[in-house]
Design a protein that fits this description.
CATH architecture: 3-Layer(aba) Sandwich
Number of helices: 6
CATH superfamily: NAD(P)-binding Rossmann-like Domain
Radius of gyration: 17 Å
Number of strands: 7
Strand content: 15-25%
Bound molecules: NADP nicotinamide-adenine-dinucleotide phosphate
Helix content: 40-55%
Strand order of the largest sheet: 3-2-1-4-5-6-7
CATH class: Alpha Beta
Number of domains: 1
Largest sheet: 7 strands, parallel
Distance between the termini: 38 Å
Length: about 250
Amino acid sequence: MLATHNLGAQGTDDKPLGDALALVTGGSRGIGRAIAMRLASLGAAVAVCGRDADALNAVTTQLAGLGGRVFSHVADVTRPADVDALVAKTESALGPITILVNNAGIGVFGPAHDKSEEDWDRVLNTNLKSVFLVSKAVAPSMIARKRGDIINISSLAGVNAFKGGGLYCASKWGLQGLSACMAEDLRGYGIRVSTICPGSVATAFSGTSPKDPSKVLSPDDVAHAVETIVMQSPKSFISQLQIRPLSKP
Ligand SMILES: NC(=O)c1ccc[n+]([C@@H]2O[C@H](COP(=O)([O-])OP(=O)(O)OC[C@H]3O[C@@H](n4cnc5c(N)ncnc54)[C@H](OP(=O)(O)O)[C@@H]3O)[C@@H](O)[C@H]2O)c1
């Protein structure tokens, strides 16, 4: 049966997102790469960005191997000029963006009172301001077409507090607020803004790697949550997914 989703009716059983164009920020590795690969395997044209050109080239080759249309662009999502160029070049290469996954993020941990203003700016600009900038750049074409999904990769740290999490939690709690308000602003246009809140995921996030990868989530678990959101029935709206590993760390 043809899957229903919020993006039109051009998909096929085999490639249900055949009419979709997804932009995944921070798509060069970790969770973002898994999301980009998942969306491409469902038939979406996929654009990815990051700051490291070599890493982007590698993932672009992997994405192209899935047979769909692919675009990559070096962009720092904390910089408004980079964001505007990213969105303009993506839309001119592939067409209007119908799925935006705001995934790029960093973690800086330790007591907030020990952190510098530079640390604060880096974390808040990457994890929160960038979502404002990229969503703002993409929203007009989604509004014009009255459809779209904006999926923000938050964290369980966006709904919980923990020792040493001050800067990171501030960015992700802020992201929860921004996402919930944007969801209200945009739902009348047929655009769903949602957050995914994973627990620890086995990536090289912030230079750390889990002690036991079998007891944390995998990037594919998060990609599956993105698939769940974009494949939901067209008139429903999953506003938030929290994901935990079944086996306790
Ligand atoms: N790993 C976890 O345990 C975990 C848990 C919950 C939520 N998350 C969230 O999941 C998201 C992805 O994390 P991850 O674990 O996949 O991290 P990762 O492996 O370190 O990947 C981060 C990605 O973001 C990109 N990026 C970082 N800063 C950027 C910037 N200023 N401009 C453009 N791209 C930028 C990186 O590319 P470049 O460095 O080349 O720019 C990379 O592609 C983050 O938002 C993170 O907060 C992670």
